[in-house]
Write a structure and sequence with these properties.
single chain; about 180 residues; alpha+beta; Topoisomerase I, Chain A, domain 4; Gyrase A, domain 2; four-stranded antiparallel β-sheet; two-stranded antiparallel ribbon; 4 helices
Length: about 180
């Protein structure tokens, strides 16, 4: 029945979106290796407009501990330095007149454990969202005019989807935990 197929498809799409959201949240949790993504939240005052740093400079990582910011306009260097400090990322930007160099400090054991806890919380929130999607789908299935057998089969399909996506969340968390704890 197309009602049930629609419920299953839309539930799978919602659960997939939860995984995409999880991946994006995990990108914001710093694992000790330098990455241009660490500066994605930084906004620079560009002629009176707060502009993402990636739109006023090239960001790259010459090595695992350094982020280099190459502004497209030299006069932006002080503004970019200020924006990085205001973002409160724990970085101390240095400029050589041409570029801004950020040395990413090595994470302490304690900080690594905090980041793992943060990642775990994000993973748990994602699981809660997936389970809420399951509950809503189950309620929607009960409201359809389908036969009891079709409803039961659809509920099994929804549970299988839920199990599959919960497993994906766990896999993502395990990878992130390993990444954070690797010195």
């Amino acid at each position: 029945m197309e009602d049930i197929d629609f419920i299953i498809d839309s539930t799978e799409e919602l659960m997939n979106n939860a995984i995409i959201h999880l991946e994006n949240e995990f990108k914001n949790i710093r694992a000790g290796k330098a990455s241009p993504a660490m500066l994605m939240g930084v906004k620079v005052d560009y002629y009176g407009t707060l502009t993402p740093i990636s739109q006023v400079a090239n960001l790259n990582t010459p090595d695992a501990r350094t982020i280099m910011v190459q502004p497209w306009e030299k006069k932006l260097i002080p503004e970019i330095e200020k924006a990085i400090l205001i973002a409160n990322l724990g970085f101390n930007p240095m400029n050589n007149g041409e570029n801004i160099i950020i040395n990413v400090p090595v994470l302490t054991e304690e900080r690594r454990r905090e980041l793992v806890k943060q990642a775990k919380a994000v993973a748990e929130d994602t699981k809660v969202g997936i389970r809420n999607d399951r509950r809503n789908a189950m309620n929607d299935i009960k409201k359809t005019d389908a036969s009891e057998d079709m409803k039961k089969n659809a509920e099994v399909d929804i549970q299988d989807l839920t199990d599959k996506f919960i497993k994906i969340v766990d896999e993502h968390f395990n990878i992130k935990e390993k990444e954070i704890m690797t010195v």
